[in-house]
């Protein structure tokens, strides 16, 4: 019996505007997570553990920030002579060339590549969520059904549901789909993992594109998924484990707080399902005399002489004597100088917090952008942004 041929398309090209300063100079999937990882490590590691070796990564914004990290797919065993990992940048030369205007538009522009690969199933995933999932298991369930699409679903908070595609489900059949509705009917959301029957889906997409004209087909939730649902060809696969979209600063911060808890929601070092990433070259962390570290993730290459609690320190972070960091996320190369205080904040690569400066406070998460220098004694209030955004 021939093995099921699966093609995975990772959507890594969105502008990531909701992450504000964190995506001004990097692609959203390249944003660091939990110290030593990047967001794109989650779908690529899922592919490896699912035994899927044909992966295409659609890039568009700040592609160089991903290129170095992807390393031809080697960390995920995707550096192969046939198949493996391939990046798909915007292109010209055919009637499908140009900038994609949405997730469905990406699929339409790459339709010829998908048809040429002739997979039994096409898995389309985003790269801005934290979760573990065996894609092959979902594919096998999909192929055993008569569905044209299987939507992986999860439960979200009621006050956050309007950010997602919301479904109503009867058994495993999706009876209604609404994309980012003003008044969500349920809290069951699609988590941006979809398994499609390739031929039927691409044919449907062609018809939608012909009707849309120059406006394009937009996102998957604009036309494709509603049409498949209306025809009774959509089914749901419930993800029972942890899933968190980290597409906003608040969600990104909260996900890190989840992982500094005594029992994190996912064991990133689980021998049965480790999260793989491009290896770095950092020495062991150094906890100097006077250091006090509690309930935190401390990466290699860090030096801590101050107090750190409930925080994530990425490689190369320095917390000087007398400095305090609490409930915060510090990305690579951040330096917090003597007497400075950082609380409920996200600090981007290379930020230098001057002596006696204060960042954050009780309230919304504060955000300091790439390589910013905060003067001695300066202040970024709770919920503040530095540099300030228009």
Automatic annotation (TrEMBL):
Alphabetic keyword roster: Glycogen biosynthesis, Nucleotidyltransferase, Transferase
Domain Nucleotidyl transferase: 9-258
CDD domains, per database record: ADP_Glucose_PP (cd02508), LbH_G1P_AT_C (cd04651)
UniProt cross-references to InterPro entries, sorted A to Z: ADP-Glc_PPase, GlmU/GlgC-like_hexapep, NTP_transferase_dom, Nucleotide-diphossugar_trans, Trimer_LpxA-like_sf
One GO molecular-function entry: glucose-1-phosphate adenylyltransferase activity
Record-linked Gene3D superfamilies: Hexapeptide repeat proteins (2.160.10.10), Spore Coat Polysaccharide Biosynthesis Protein SpsA, Chain A (3.90.550.10)
One BP term from GO: glycogen biosynthetic process
Entry-linked Pfam families: Hexapep_GlmU, NTP_transferase
Keyword Transferase: yes
Domain called Glucose-1-phosphate adenylyltransferase/Bifunctional protein GlmU-like C-terminal hexapeptide: residue spans: 292-362
SUPFAM superfamilies given in the database record: Nucleotide-diphospho-sugar transferases (SSF53448), Trimeric LpxA-like enzymes (SSF51161)
Coiled coil ranges: none
Family per similarity comment: Belongs to the bacterial/plant glucose-1-phosphate adenylyltransferase family.
Protein name as catalogued: Glucose-1-phosphate adenylyltransferase
């Amino acid at each position: 019996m021939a093995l099921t041929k699966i093609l995975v398309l990772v959507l890594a090209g969105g502008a990531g505007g909701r992450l504000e300063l964190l995506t001004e100079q990097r692609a959203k999937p390249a944003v660091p997570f939990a110290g030593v990882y990047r967001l794109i490590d989650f779908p690529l590691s899922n592919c490896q553990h699912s035994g899927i070796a044909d992966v295409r990564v659609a890039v568009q914004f700040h592609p160089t920030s991903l290129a170095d990290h992807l390393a031809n797919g080697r960390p995920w065993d995707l550096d192969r002579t046939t198949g493996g990992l391939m990046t798909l940048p915007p292109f010209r030369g055919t009637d499908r060339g140009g900038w994609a205007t949405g997730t469905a538009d990406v699929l339409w522009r790459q339709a010829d590549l998908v048809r040429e690969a002739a997979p039994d199933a096409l898995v389309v995933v985003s790269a801005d969520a934290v979760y573990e999932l065996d894609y092959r298991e979902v594919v096998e369930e999909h192929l055993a059904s008569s569905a044209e699409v299987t939507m992986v679903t999860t439960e979200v908070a009621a006050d956050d549901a309007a950010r997602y595609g919301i479904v109503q489900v009867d058994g495993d059949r999706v009876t209604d789909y609404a994309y980012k509705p003003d008044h969500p009917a349920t809290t069951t959301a699609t988590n941006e993992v979809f398994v499609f029957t390739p031929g039927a889906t691409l044919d449907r997409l062609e018809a939608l594109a012909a009707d849309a004209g120059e406006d394009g087909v937009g996102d998957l939730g604009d036309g494709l998924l509603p049409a498949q649902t209306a025809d009774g060809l959509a089914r749901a696969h419930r993800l029972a484990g942890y899933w968190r979209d980290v597409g906003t600063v608040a969600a990104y911060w909260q996900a890190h707080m989840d992982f500094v808890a005594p029992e994190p929601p996912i064991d990133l070092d689980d021998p049965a399902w480790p999260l793989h990433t491009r290896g770095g070259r950092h020495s062991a962390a150094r906890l100097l005399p006077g250091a006090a570290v509690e309930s935190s993730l401390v990466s290699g290459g860090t030096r801590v002489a101050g107090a750190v609690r409930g925080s994530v320190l990425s490689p190369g972070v320095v917390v000087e004597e007398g400095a305090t960091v609490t409930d915060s996320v510090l990305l690579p190369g951040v330096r917090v100088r003597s007497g400075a205080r950082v609380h409920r904040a996200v600090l981007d690569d290379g930020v230098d917090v001057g002596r006696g400066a204060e960042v954050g406070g009780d309230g919304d998460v504060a955000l300091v952008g790439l390589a910013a220098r905060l003067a001695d004694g300066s202040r970024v209030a709770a919920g503040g942004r530095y540099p300030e955004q228009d």
